[in-house]
Amino acid sequence: MRKRPIFKDQTLVLLTKHQKERVIAPLLEQTTGGKVVVESGFDTDQFGTFSRERARPESQLATARLKIAKGLELCPADIGLASEGSFGPHPLMPIPWNIEMVLLKDKKENIEVCGIYQGAETNFNQILTGDYDQVLAFAGKARFPEHHLIMRPDSKLSTKIVKDISSYDHLKQAFNWCVSQSSVGQVFLETDMRAHANPTRMKNIEKATEDLLAKLYVFCPDCGAPAFAVSQRIQGLPCELCALPSKMILKQIRKCSKCGFIQEELHPDGSKAPAKYCDFCNP
Ligand SMILES: [Zn+2]
Ligand SMILES: [Zn+2]
Hints:
By secondary structure, the protein is α+β, with helices and mostly antiparallel strands. 24% of the residues lie in helices and 28% in strands. Helix 1 packs parallel to helix 5.
């Protein structure tokens, strides 16, 4: 179904220097009718880098907001876009975890929507080694050379760094150089998580953009504004066996950020909680 072009002929400013427009622009332009304009006149590394030259001073969401503010300052428009990712271990399991956010802000309409992807689909990894066979095994697992690598002598904190490794010749050269610079003959090798150097991450940014669109295309029943978003979820869905309240969602509340209209939705995940989620039946 063709969707209403809610940003028809409007400019959407995206601050990026890592080619994120490749996945963000086609989706947003086709659906919303807006024009994504890339603003690359600012070094977004100042908001933090994955390879630790500069720590990210703010949270993921706050950093995305800073990028939007900077983009709209450099390229005057009403609507700004930013993408911000994070990588680390899953909070409960020993697997790598990626959270991607694509944030949209419409200053004039007072709308802010955040599209999110989170999942284990990432090559995020690091190794400390002096053995080139291990370097090759790591590269294979990281889906090199389509996915680029970063290498340092000694440790992850070394200020000596080889970036943009994207061929086996360069990998070997980097290894020889880093070993020669190391006091113990070891290199620290890691996956490059910048979007243009990591097709898997680019795909996840695309998924977050799809989520952003899904959230944008819910309209306020009162004033018709887009992004009629869930602002609160309330637990307590009754258990199917004992009818006591569970941790599952009983109702969610949507709020229009333009006119303030509020709507309650009962039972977004079904009307009874399976007993396996009940603290009484299945403690
Ligand atoms: Zn409204
Ligand atoms: Zn129960």
